[in-house]
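Backbone-to-sequence.
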């Protein structure tokens, strides 16, 4: 398990941020092509509209949105070791990103 100090330190890890930035772009593309129809995406009919707005922000400010998503991923995986977080596969980063999109999409003040 990573310490809180380690978790805060990896928030500034360029490689991890770059992976999350790409994952944010992929999530935005999934949303814009209406492929966000199964979990982990919220199935409430109004949720897709919120995600479309989020996707527009993700395209306009990818690194800003990626930083927000990165922090959510880090704290969500706080029980993992530092190495496990830093060495997460692209697929794991994408899954974690997709899982937190609705949090930001439905709470725009969080972005």
């Amino acid at each position: 398990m990573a310490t809180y100090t380690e978790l805060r330190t990896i928030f500034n890890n360029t490689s991890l941020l770059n992976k999350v930035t790409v994952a944010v772009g992929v999530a935005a593309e999934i949303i814009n092509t209406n492929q966000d129809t199964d979990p982990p995406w919220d199935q409430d009919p109004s949720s897709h509209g919120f995600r479309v707005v989020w996707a527009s922000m993700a395209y306009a400010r990818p690194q800003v949105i990626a930083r927000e998503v990165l922090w959510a991923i880090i704290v969500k995986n706080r029980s993992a070791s530092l190495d496990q977080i830093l060495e997460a596969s692209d697929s794991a980063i994408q899954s974690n990103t997709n899982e937190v999109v609705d949090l930001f999409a439905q709470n725009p003040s969080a972005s």
